[in-house]
Amino acid sequence: MSDFEIEKTLVLSTGHVTSKVAKWLEAGQLFSTSYDYGWVIPANFSGKEFADEECSEADLACVEAATKLAKELGCQWVKFDQDGEQTDRLEYYEW
Q1: Is residue 36 part of a domain?
Q2: What DSSP string runs through 46-79?
Q3: Residue 14 and residue 94: Cα distance in Å, rounded?
C-alpha cells in the first residue's frame, strides 16, 4: 500500500466553457485554482451552489457537464487548459 494519496484529473480544453463562464472563473468567483492557461475545479462542483448575479445556474451548465464526465471517469478534479483536448462528449464554444 502506498503512503501517497493520488487524485485523478480530467484535462479538457478551455473551449468547453463559455466565454461568460471563463470571465467568471478568471474573476475568482468559484473556489478554483486559476493559472495562466486555465482553471482547476473540484469534480463535486454544483452550479446551484455557486450561481450568482453574473453567472446563473443555466450559464454554469457547461461546467456541470464537465464535472459530471469527470466523476463518471473516476476523477476528483477538472482542469480546463487552453491546450487541453476537445471531446465530442461535451459542447465546445468558440470564443
Answers
A1: yes
A2: -HHHH--SSS-TTTTHHHHHHHHHHHHTT-SEEE
A3: 10
CB 62 within 8 A of CB 85: no
Burial of 31 (0-12, 13-18, 19+ CB in 10 A): exposed
77 occurs within a structural domain:
yes
Dig out the grid coordinates for 3 from the structure.
Answer: 503512503
- C-beta atoms surrounding 88 within 10 Å: 6
pLDDT, tens digit, for every residue of 44-94? 988 888 888 888 999 999 999 999 999 999 999 999 999 999 999 999 999
b/e sequence 43-78, b meaning 16+ C-beta within 10 Å? bebebeebeeeebeeebbebbebbbebbeeeebebb
CA 19 distance to own-chain centroid: 13
DSSP 8-state assignment for residue 4:
S
Please count the structural domains in the chain.
1
Q: What are 45's three cell numbers?
A: 462542483
